[in-house]
Amino acid sequence: MLSREVFIVLNLISLVIMVICVRLVANKTEGFAIRLRRLIMAAAVGVSACVYVAMAPTAISAEVAFCIYFGSLDWVAFYLLGFFLKYTNHQKLYKITYWPVLIMVVCDTISIFLNLVLGHQFSVYKLEFDGEFYYQYTYSWPYILHLILDYAVIGIGFITIVIAMFKSVSFYKIKYICVFSVVSVLIALNMVYLAFSMPLDWSVTFYAFGSMLIYYYSIHYTPQNLIGSAIKRATNEMNEGLIMFDLDNNCIYINEFIRKYFGIMDISECKIDSIPMQTIVVGDDIGNVDDIKQIVVEGKDGNRDERFRVHFSRLKNKKNKDLGAYFRLERITDEYENMILLKNAREEANRANKAKSDFLANMSHEIRTPINSILGMNEMVIRECDDEQIVEYAQNIQSAGNSLLGLINDILDFSKVEAGKMDLVIDTYNIHKILRDALHMLESRAVEKGLKLDIVCDENIPMGLSGDENRIRQIITNIVTNGIKYTKEGGVTVKVECDILNDDEARLVFEISDTGIGISEENMATLFSAFHRVDESRNRNIEGTGLGLAITKQLLELMDGDVFVESEVNKGSVFTVIIPQGITDKKPVGKFSRTIEVKKNGYKESFTAPTAKVLVVDDVPMNIKVVQALLKKTQINIDTTTNGNEAFEMCKNKKYDVILMDHMMPEPDGIATLKMIREEGLNKDSCVIVLTANAINGVEKEYLEVGFADYMSKPVKGEVLEKMLMKYLPKDKLE
Ligand code: ADP
After folding, report:
1. In what helix (H) or strand (E) does residue 564 lie, and over which residues does it extend?
2. Which of 2, 185, 376, 720 has the smallest CB count inside 10 Å?
3. DSSP for 105-152?
4. What number does the ligand 1 atom closest to the CA of 534 have?
């Protein structure tokens, strides 16, 4: 048997360890750690008392120490229960048991200390072999009660840990196994002590070792292990591949994803320059991989082209020293395939869009060509016919022809904006000009219907504004045309104001009100939808396509502007248009005057040029006739041809002042003919103007880029044609 001295030395060492443990747990704030600290403190008291018992000089002091030791076991049991319940997250049970157990423990402690007075728990006996006093229990009823209480308390805690151990899944079991083992050993040792009625409780020597184990296990090992296991589990379930290398480029970790996609069984196969690692990481410096890699992966159902985006990162410590590196592989095979599909779809859509644009260009060209002839010839009838009845018929043809042209323009505009091909042409303009143009265009229509068309323009609007004058005119004309179309009595008023925001920016506000049929509340929502005419039954007799407001809205969006409508059925509507514009001249524009050129009844040529020579090239003879007729009174010498090659030959023999060239002709077309003429150095000083039915947005620029001096779209008006020639004919030839 071990001697008393060994017992004392071992337990003193235990005490030191326990004090260290208490200090280590001192700064932990978790509920279980607080209980653990108190548990170790109570155990330390018990161990100290045992040490004293072993070296007690008198029987009475040995008995007091024995009482302290016995009492401390009550508190060890109490805090052990607290520790178990907190550690296993049994908060509710902790709350329920706290007070009853505390009261019982206090009572038991008191009863133990009454032993001194009542002497009913322990008896003192003297060991024969060394003559020292040792205290030992007797199986009296208070002592048995004391044992039952302590074991019941420990038992509850023990059951909770066993339940937690069985209930927990996977790596969470680790959390409880060690605590369970340590406490089991303690209980077993205590039972041995009881069973053999040993003079000294050797089981307390294990308290220090147990405390240390529980401290290390619950505070360090378990949380770290849980984190490690959880991370491992998470990385294995990750939908991305993870490969880690140490500083010497040895692979230290691969997750399930890598095993699955690259068929790797063992980490030792993952040398950095082995297959398949090579496909992933080699080829670049290990630090520079961030790329999409095409990797052919051998799958169950044959080889498959997989695509991975490879991300590379270095692992560093807190001092920024390299610890290794890791690769993250994002599988983007599906994304890549979708990308390809999307790319194909986009190309397909672009092709379709191009086909649409081509169709529009062709349609526009094909329709404009005959309209050109109709309107041109019709203008000749109006100019030259003296029979009023026939002139009236011709004027009707002119009006219908212009409507048809407006329709084609609307459809073209709409598809241009939709295709994002509408460009704004920003220039300086004067607001009065826009208003006068609109008035000029629309007043006759209003007068015909017996409507008033008023314009109220703020005098303080800056004289020079910058914006797309033509598009603003188009917007205002659209809305005012509607006002006239949908009003039977009264009239339309256009009010223009301007908010000056700063030296360079202003906001133009147009308020166009009519006294017409109005728009009902439910129709407001679809007012700006393309091809949508509201209230069809009421408006059946009013011509329109339902495109005007859609284009207006789109144009305004393009200009960062907006439009608002207020309307009352049978009372009228107010359209408010807001357009941000630049300011180029701050001077006030002044009073608006309606001085509109009174339309002359008869046509009068704007100039004559009997010495000027013009060549007209167009494959449609009717178009040539139109130009000839429109220019008849100017007395210009006009040569014509329907063929590019012939035009080229003609240029060899004659010098023309201006050449009017069609574009779409059978080989060579207008552009090729122009090139031939220019390359040959013929008619160097003459201006070649393209006169084409191609009115798609942007073509003007293209024509100018290939070398045409200017652009005119068909159907051409006599007035426009004369203006253009006045600009390009030599001044000395104009009379
Ligand atoms: P439309 O070519 O039919 O005039 P719009 O896009 O210009 O096409 O207008 C769409 C619809 O909005 C019209 O069909 C008409 O019913 C209604 N609308 C537009 N302006 C007015 C207005 N000033 N008064 C009454 N209804 C209007």
Report:
1. strand 562-568
2. 2
3. HHHHHHHHHTHHHH--SEEEEE-TTT--EEEEE---HHHHHHHHHHHH
4. 16
The separation between CA 86 and the C-alpha centre of its own chain, rounded to angstroms, equals 46
How many whole angstroms separate alpha carbon 427 and alpha carbon 504? 14
* Distance from Cα 396 to the centre of ligand 1, integer Å: 24
**How does pLDDT run across 471-484, given as a tens digit for each residue?**
898 899 999 999 99
State the distance from the centre of ligand 1 to the C-alpha of 252, rounded, in angstroms: 73
Q: What is the full DSSP assignment across 566-603?
A: EEETTTEEEEEEEEEEEEEEEEE-------PPPPPSS-
DSSP assigned state of 305: E
- Residue 648's nearest CA partner among 613, 620, 669, 676 is 676
572 lines ligand 1 (CB under 6 A): no
Nearest atom of ligand 1 to the alpha carbon of 528: 6
pLDDT above 70 for 126: no
Note whether 454 and 442 are within 8 A (CB): no
CA of 558 to the centre of ligand 1 (A): 21
Amino acid present at 250: N
Q: How does pLDDT run across 673-688, given as a tens digit for each residue? A: 999 988 888 888 889 9
Beta carbons within 10 angstroms of residue 250's beta carbon:
14
CB 656 within 8 A of CB 615: yes
The token duo for 499 is 């908010």
Q: Which residue has the least CA distance to atom 7 on ligand 1?
A: 548
Q: What is the mean pLDDT of the chain?
A: 84
| Alpha-carbon span 31 to 224, nearest angstrom | 19
Q: Which residues contact 575 (CB under 8 A, 6 or more apart)?
A: 479, 483, 510, 511, 512, 513, 563, 564, 565
The pTM of this model reads 0.47
